[in-house]
Amino acid sequence: YLPRDHPDFFDAEAFLKNRPKKSAEKIAAAARAKERGMRFKKQGEDFREHCRKNPIVKTLAEECKAKGGPIMVIVKAYEERRVVMVTTKHKLGIRGHAFAYVKAFDKYMNMLLQDVREIYTVRLKHRVEYVDKNGKTRYKIKHRLEGRERTMDQVFLRGEQIVTVALMDFDHPDCPVKVRSIHWFPYDPVAVVNAIP
């Protein structure tokens, strides 16, 4: 601690004693802000409790059932846990197809997919050598499409990247998923798992 006669000494007691007192308006404003914060906190707790009792995806599925429409395809895939084929796009056209289970979705067609197998194309650049009309060797850049494939445990797909969604049957020759993964979700009930090939 600094002695009182030091030029950098700060007298906290004098500061607290002489500081201006809050006006009644400021005290009332602070009380209103505290009350508003407690109200928002209670609303958040009530909303979390509502979501716990009524899962959002389940509620959305029930609303879509009542209204009908094209999103019923996703609702059916979600409820029956069927494989869907999602065709995706990029700025130049069709990107590829993803085969997966629908774990969650919303009305904007944003989807959380699980056990995903994606077959897609990438546009690659490569340099090509050629001889021009003057006999000089020159190079030019060309593009080619290369097919690729990958698997992912989970992926979030934005609705604006989706072109089509189709239900797949396990017996269909184009369906790459033959067995439902036992790692669908640790809390989901599993009726039958045939683990022996």
What does this structure look like?
It is a single chain. By secondary structure, the chain is α+β, with helices and mostly antiparallel strands. The chain has helices at residues 12-18, 24-53, 56-67, 72-80; strands spanning 83-90, 93-105, 111-131, 137-157, 162-167. Strand 3 (111-131) and strand 4 form a beta hairpin. The chain starts with 11 loop residues before the first helix and ends in a 30-residue tail after the last strand.
What's this model, at a glance?
This protein is of the alpha+beta class and 197 residues long. The protein has helices at residues 12-18, 24-53, 56-67, 72-80; strands at residues 83-90, 93-105, 111-131, 137-157, 162-167.
